[in-house]
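Data availability (excerpt). The following record was deposited with the supplementary files.
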Amino acid sequence: MVAARLDLTLNELLVVAESLVRDRTLSGSEIAGIVGLGAPAVTAILARLEERDLVHRDPDPHDARRQVVAASPEARAVLHRPLHDHDTRHLLDGLSASAADGVLVAVGRAADNGLRQVQRDRDRWADEQVRRSRLDAPRSRPRRIGPAPG
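Predicted structure:
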């Protein structure tokens, strides 16, 4: 199982996977909803993930009493290889059906998010190529130098 190979608990894997697939930070209450645990357990999970540089916590810009969590670039690197290199037939061995469903949902979201990002990057690149070709295109009429006829 991927979590065991990465020395993560299932809940830690779910938190990192969910934080990777979202385009925004997560609040503690959102993480509690993902893993189905209370605030003290979520705090412990986040502390362990932060120690391993898989997430970072920052003050919430809208509420100084709260913190928000985001996956680190290291998390993407750490999770990318096992999820792509592992024989998928054995990816979820040893998990209960409900835990496997949770992992599959998170992985599916990650794949969808990755595809959307690739499409956005491709569209941005194509738009930039069109813009550059318009800037580099020769003008159809020569410019007139001197006073206007009249």
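Summary of structural features: The first helix runs from residue 2 to 5.
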